[in-house]
């Protein structure tokens, strides 16, 4: 039987060097793996629907299976309501789900098959200097360097 629970995953360090954890809702599977219910806003490398093995002693995780979802975080210094009104409906037309909404952040999950170009065009039309906001992918780049593409989507978009 599966059960819903919340785990804490390491998300980085604050400016003073203290570790930061993010609470992530997951479903516990019968084989002791966990499936993410929402995409995290700060933990890198994961998205909604991914199955992980949680290493409780270290607070780390290993990915067992990717869902095919992209995690997208949008951060805003100003009034996020104005951004929500234009951005959310456009991403939802592609099939995105708004996983988290706070006064300064939105987190979306959207399947990679919707196309990077389509997704990025929408994000770039609504997010940026004019709205005092920025967006990032949470699971496209290697968390170690923030630059190297993970390329996990290749097997999904180009199955052999």
How would you describe what is shown here?
By secondary structure, the chain is α+β, with helices and mostly antiparallel strands. It folds into two domains: 3-65, no CATH class; 69-137, 2-Layer Sandwich (Alpha-Beta Plaits), CATH 3.30.70.330. The protein is built from three helices and nine strands, in the order ββββββαββαβα. The strands form two sheets. A five-stranded antiparallel sheet has the order 1-2-3-4-5, with no helix packed on it. A four-stranded antiparallel sheet has the order 7-8-6-9, with helices on one face. It is globular.
Q: What is this structure, in a nutshell?
A:
With 160 residues, this protein is of the alpha+beta class. The chain has 2 domains: 3-65, no CATH class; 69-137, Alpha-Beta Plaits, CATH 3.30.70. Helices cover 18% and strands 38% of the residues.
**What percent strand?**
35-45%
Largest sheet: 5 strands, antiparallel
Total of DSSP H or I helical runs spanning 4+ residues:
3
Strand order of the largest sheet: 1-2-3-4-5
Q: How many domains, as an integer?
A: 2
CATH homologous superfamily title of the largest domain = RRM (RNA recognition motif) domain
What class would the helix/strand composition place it in?
Answer: alpha+beta
Question: Level of helix content?
Answer: 10-25%
Number of strand segments = 9
| Poorly predicted ranges | none
Shape: globular
Under CATH, the topology of the largest domain is which?
A: Alpha-Beta Plaits
Instruction: Give me the CATH architecture of the largest domain, please.
Output: 2-Layer Sandwich
CATH class assignment of the largest domain: Alpha Beta
The arrangement of helices and strands along the chain is EEEEEEHEEHEH
What's the alpha carbon Rg, rounded to whole Å?
A: 16 Å
N- and C-termini, Cα separation:
34 Å
Q: Average the pLDDT over all residues and give the rounded result.
A: 93
């Amino acid at each position: 039987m599966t059960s819903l629970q919340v785990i804490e995953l390491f998300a980085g360090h604050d400016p003073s060097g203290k570790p930061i954890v993010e609470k992530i809702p997951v479903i516990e599977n019968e084989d002791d793996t966990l499936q993410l219910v929402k995409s995290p806003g700060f933990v890198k490398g994961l998205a909604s629907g991914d199955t992980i093995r949680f290493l409780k002693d270290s607070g780390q995780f290993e990915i067992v299976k990717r869902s095919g979802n992209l995690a997208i975080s949008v951060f805003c210094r100003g009034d996020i309501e104005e951004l929500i009104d234009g951005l959310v409906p456009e991403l939802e037309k592609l099939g995105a789900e708004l996983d988290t909404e706070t006064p300064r952040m939105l987190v979306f999950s959207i399947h990679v098959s919707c196309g990077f170009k389509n997704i990025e065009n929408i994000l770039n039309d609504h997010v940026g200097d004019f709205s005092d906001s920025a967006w990032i992918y949470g699971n496209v780049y290697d968390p170690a360097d923030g630059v190297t593409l993970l390329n996990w989507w290749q097997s999904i978009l180009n199955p052999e």
